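fyi for ur records
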Amino acid sequence: MAIYSGIGWLFLILVLGLTGCAAPTTVVSRRQEKAAAYQALSPEFREAADRGALKAGMPADAVYIAWGAPAQVLQRGSAAGEETIWIYTGGFMQETRYWGYHRLHSDYTPRTYVRAEVVFSQGVVSSWRTLPEPVD
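which gave:
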């Protein structure tokens, strides 16, 4: 019995260690990934990226460091020129309640929504906006 519980603990530690390796990226890890681009940023843009903030005029590398990779990249053009739009998505679990056999039941469905968008003109941020999580 003692051997089994020791193996169980070893297995648990191994599983936790492996799942820890798949941690989400952070500003620090993205800054290390794009070290040369980070060093080339102005002090103002470096400070904003470190805080996860955006500023007009920021290059795409600074936005990547601040917010990470976008879920989608769109292109649009007009008489004024071409623009690139980065779309960031968010997610939540939407609860649905219903009466079933003698009691109230709940189901949860994953939902995604557009959380933010960043517009680049001539390679730098011209505008951005964040959007709230939808309310049902």
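Residues 2-130 form one domain. thats all i got for now
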